[in-house]
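testing teh design pipeline on a random one, pls ignore if ur not involved
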């Protein structure tokens, strides 16, 4: 049987162990003190570099069942420099709320999908680790891999270096959902401006010496001589993801910088990181079309926000491209959990009318379990 989703009991076991050790990231910090570097699970160069969010096909006799629906990736990229240094602790604390609102609650905004999550953290290029990036997970491994991260917490607040994480999101990610011409979700959280330049030597430092081979493997003809800048990278990301910058606080330089990169409809000002579960759920719900602008404030209060915070967030998200996912091809056609397939990796189930579906019915090699065993 394929892996289960995140449960409160499993999460609590990870969280209690972290609390007893005094830090959500105790395991990663201990490994760093021992000179071992990042654990391969959160090292951006580990496990083949490319992060994969793939649907699970469970054998059923001579057929295959889509066990939990089509895989939907949500990646959150957290600033851990300066005043943002506690963001992993906060993300760990609010993880059950996040997962409930997205995947398992009474009315989850991604309820028809198999929700999988990548957690990334970024620092400065002068840090030991510019980027930590987990695998795409759906159970307590989301929390476990947070404990392996090393947020160094140094640096000032202007500017920061999330561009390498955004590059990974744009070019070193593979998702089942994109085969249906739909998009996954991507969030970057910071309170400071960034840098436009993406340095090829730093890409090698972050993602390993084979990064340019991995880019080609993932369908991107990028080499050291034609590295896109940050704005170009975000534009590439937007072809595959509903991507947003969540600005903590109202610092004007940060707002100007990220608005110039993402556009004014994708920069959302939030008062504090603790509100991430509700903010992300509201954005996703509006984009999926399961929420509307008239109901979002009430939804945010039902999801746990005080009236003032709900009003503020509702106002901030009102400018996003509402219903953008619902307008994409195949939104109403994708198979749901329990659908049966002739072959592992088919896009369309047995009952589908082939004349009505685009494509050749195959999902390339992306649905095969990774050779490193991450999907075994």
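output:
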């Amino acid at each position: 049987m394929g892996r289960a989703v995140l449960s409160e009991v499993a999460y609590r076991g990870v969280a209690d162990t972290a609390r007893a050790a005094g830090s959500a990231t105790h395991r990663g910090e201990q490994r760093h003190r021992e000179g071992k570097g990042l654990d391969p699970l959160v090292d951006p160069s580990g496990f083949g570099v490319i992060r994969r969010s793939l649907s699970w096909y469970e054998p059923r006799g001579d057929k295959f069942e889509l066990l939990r629906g089509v895989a939907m990736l949500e990646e959150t990229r957290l600033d851990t420099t300066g005043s943002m240094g506690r963001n992993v602790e906060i993300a760990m604390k609010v993880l059950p709320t996040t997962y409930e609102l997205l995947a398992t609650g009474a009315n989850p905004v991604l309820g028809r999908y198999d929700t999988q999550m990548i957690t990334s953290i970024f620092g400065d290029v002068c840090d030991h680790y510019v980027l930590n990036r987990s695998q795409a997970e759906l159970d307590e491994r989301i929390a476990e891999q947070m404990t392996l991260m090393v947020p160094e917490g140094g640096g000032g607040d202007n500017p920061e270096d999330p561009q390498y994480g955004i590059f990974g999101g744009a070019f070193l990610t593979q998702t089942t959902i994109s085969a249906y011409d739909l998009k996954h979700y991507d969030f970057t959280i910071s309170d400071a401006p960034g840098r436009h330049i993406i340095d090829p030597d730093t890409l090698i430092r972050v993602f390993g010496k084979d990064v340019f081979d991995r880019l080609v493997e993932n369908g991107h003809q990028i080499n050291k001589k034609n590295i896109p800048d940050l704005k170009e990278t975000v534009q590439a990301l937007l072809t595959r993801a509903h991507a947003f910058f969540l600005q903590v606080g109202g610092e004007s330089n940060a707002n100007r910088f990220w608005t110039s990169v993402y556009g004014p409809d994708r920069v959302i000002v939030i008062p504090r990181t603790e509100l991430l579960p509700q903010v992300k759920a509201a954005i996703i719900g509006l984009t999926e079309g399961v929420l509307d602008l008239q109901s979002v404030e009430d939804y945010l209060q039902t999801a746990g926000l005080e009236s003032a915070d709900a009003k503020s967030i509702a106002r901030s998200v009102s400018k996003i491209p509402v219903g953008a996912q619902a307008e994409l091809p195949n939104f109403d056609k994708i198979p749901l959990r329990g659908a049966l397939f002739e072959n592992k990796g088919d896009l369309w189930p047995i009952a589908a009318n082939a004349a009505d579906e685009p494509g050749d019915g195959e999902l390339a090699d992306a649905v095969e379990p990774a050779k490193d065993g991450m999907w075994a």
